[in-house]
Amino acid sequence: MTVHRLSPEILSAMESAVGQSGVAISGSDMAKYLGDWSGDHRGGALAVLKPASVAEVQAVVRLCGALGLGIIPQGGNTGLVAGAIDIEARGAVVISLERLNRIRLVDADNFVLQADAGCVLQAVKDASEAHDCLFPLALGAQGSCQIGGNAASNAGGVNVLRYGMARDLILGLEVVLPDGELWDGFCGLRKDNRGYDLKQLFIGSEGTLGIITGVELKLFPRPARIETAYLGLASFEAAVALFRQARRATADLISAFEIIGSECIDLARLVDADLASPVEAPVHVLMELSASAAVDLRALLVDFLAGAMESGLVAEALLADSDGHAKAFWAIREGLVEGQAKRGYHVRTDLSVRISDIPALVDQARHFVALEHPGWLPQAYGHAGDGNIHFNVLPPEGLTVVEARNRGADITAGLYRIANSLGGSISAEHGIGRSRHRAFWAGLAPAHRRLVTALKQALDPDGLMNPGCLLPPTETVP
Amino acid sequence: MTVHRLSPEILSAMESAVGQSGVAISGSDMAKYLGDWSGDHRGGALAVLKPASVAEVQAVVRLCGALGLGIIPQGGNTGLVAGAIDIEARGAVVISLERLNRIRLVDADNFVLQADAGCVLQAVKDASEAHDCLFPLALGAQGSCQIGGNAASNAGGVNVLRYGMARDLILGLEVVLPDGELWDGFCGLRKDNRGYDLKQLFIGSEGTLGIITGVELKLFPRPARIETAYLGLASFEAAVALFRQARRATADLISAFEIIGSECIDLARLVDADLASPVEAPVHVLMELSASAAVDLRALLVDFLAGAMESGLVAEALLADSDGHAKAFWAIREGLVEGQAKRGYHVRTDLSVRISDIPALVDQARHFVALEHPGWLPQAYGHAGDGNIHFNVLPPEGLTVVEARNRGADITAGLYRIANSLGGSISAEHGIGRSRHRAFWAGLAPAHRRLVTALKQALDPDGLMNPGCLLPPTETVP
């Protein structure tokens, strides 16, 4: 819709910067860059540019700066908050990092990997494994999300509990700044306390302060033993108590502690109709421990669970007997997310609270939906070990998309109110993007707003980096 | 020397802000706030103010802002880089946090502790232990350093390997901004991805962007088992290879991996003349593993070391048989630092390199000292698991302090050149302060300088926060 603004001169300058094959301007060529994975968001762009080197990223940023064009950095486009989709279609340029996709270095001796921002997360994980190392970031989207996007959005996932968010896994960044200059923040050091830690600015900034072109990552020894258990519990309270005991009993050998309300199992059946639930209980827990071969992890887990069953905290427990068995457990967790997507539009949230407040969050949210939005189906699951619950709500059959979205906005607002009243967060791991920035901004204290604005102004005074994302738009749509 | 500038009006305003007992202006009252632990630095101040509440910190900051007075936030004064000592004595005001010393909350269920900035680190550790939790930051100075200073300087220590720097242990901060406003960044959440992570700005900023008044910390399960070994090895190469194997063999159950050149043992003997070295080898390693009671850590360590001795990597190995025995091993590590202090002035560094470059760093540094500064005594020890070597150099007997300091400056510069040539850091954990800011600044790429300056300008436009620290001074001494 904005192609008419693209003059021959601008097109020619773009082609000079990234080559003809690096420029997409037709609707069909741009299509895959203008809609996100969830199907929830579509946007517009003046052009999609695909630089093939860091120097080309710099050239494109300088060109956009000279023309006053907004820049939307884009990775694998698997985010859920329209962080890389210009839903207001204000004539910005999408810069896709997909052609910057080289693993630069795997230094297994020092447990360091360097990669271009456009490397797919799975490729990073595979390259680490090939050197008998682990890069622990693990997400449903790992086959298509890009490591630069993971850094820019501070991605979370199922192993945060043990290894932290993307922020905790990054040793260094390479960033093209809004003026086109390159900041080389690679150092290869495990410990470096030379002044302000500038990489922290860009991690989680969602492309609003610069374009990440390269990442330097921490690798870990690959755990030689992994034990996986699928548990049935009576309540969310029991799950939280179990987690607390497990942290102490294992001294933090837990690598995942996922919680699944039993209502979610029907969603997983949309992907695998024959799926049999491993347990029959209101609340399921998928728990994973990992360690080196020198630790008898199986005995540790068996002893711990025996105690938990004896004390009545755990009702049913299944231990994976093989890798395949463990994968089948994980397929339930992954299937319920895919199953939701098959249901089309639904309310997605990404709430976090203090871990001990998880039961209150789920109770209040279920009560709210039942009372004020009867017929809508709540689904509660998430990374309980991080206090992070994806409390999602499926619309009843028969609603039009417009009706569902309107009502969905009310439900979302109600769930945010509940999270806020518990001192929680409306974005535990997905970020703010364009779909949450109003709720985000409304919830900020004045001092916090001033700091956010001052940072943005200091680094991107012209406001060209990912306009409309994270911060409230500074310009209005023409 | 600057008391004459303190008019009765200003003094009276200061007393209104913090009460009479909160103001020190005489040389004797100010003395302990104007010299650091090492004895290397002394500075001056117009006054030392000791606010007893967050509101009093705000009042003091507003007063200094109105008067255009520089502000030097000060914790336990145990830093080594003159970060809280105005060595140029430019008439700033020291704000000591020592009266803000309350543990605000220990939430063992959620593994969270909140404390005033002025709490001594040991008090934080004790409060955690009282709830059967661990706060893992561990420094020689933990009996007097303050947790706010640990946050402001992103302190390191002996357990970084397992638990990270102060940055990694902080969930939230409370900060009085340069305009006197309070930013409340406590949230109690393990996971929160709402936009820019503002606390990262203040961690490691050495008081140049605001005054930390409160910290919210991550606690951990207290490891029920700790095993400690003292090892003798032939070389730094062997120590690095051993570390690499140990990471894999234990899947990161190592909580400390300290390296000590055998020459340092004589320093420890300055503290305990009867000290017998546990091993006779060129390089000593103090290695600690920790885990829950469910892990047979002793067997794991014995097996690992047996293999390492069989392969010839380790020459001698002693396992601690009791807590007292382990403490005796640690007393060597702590004693050598105290022993150095007894020697008076010496060259102190805090270098880091890629772990695999540790042998090159030590070789080149020793060679440089032997060749260009014969008679000076190099001491190499540090946190090898982090790539962090304190390569210190003692002056020969008979030099005057002035002669030693002049030559010491040359030696320091030479050691920085070696670290830089290996792609290393001149400050792994101690920070920049006033003693390293010229070397720091000289080593920065232009894009990095611009970012640092832009941040400082954005948050502290009047340049009143810790002037002369970290950044080059913006004003000249009158």
UniProtKB/TrEMBL annotation, chains A, B:
Q: Which species is listed as the source?
A: Mesorhizobium abyssinicae
Query: What is the protein's given name?
Result: FAD-binding oxidoreductase
Q: Where is the signal peptide?
A: none
So which domain of life are we looking at? Bacteria
FAD-binding PCMH-type domain sequence ranges: 41-222
Keywords, alphabetical: FAD, Flavoprotein
**Taxonomic lineage of this organism?**
Bacteria, Pseudomonadati, Pseudomonadota, Alphaproteobacteria, Hyphomicrobiales
Family affiliation: Belongs to the FAD-binding oxidoreductase/transferase type 4 family.
**InterPro entries linked:** FAD-bd_oxidored_4_C, FAD-bd_PCMH, FAD-bd_PCMH-like_sf, FAD-bd_PCMH_sub1, FAD-bd_PCMH_sub2, FAD-linked_Oxase-like_C, FAD-oxidored/transferase_4, Oxid_FAD_bind_N
According to its UniProt record, what is one Pfam family this protein matches?
FAD-oxidase_C
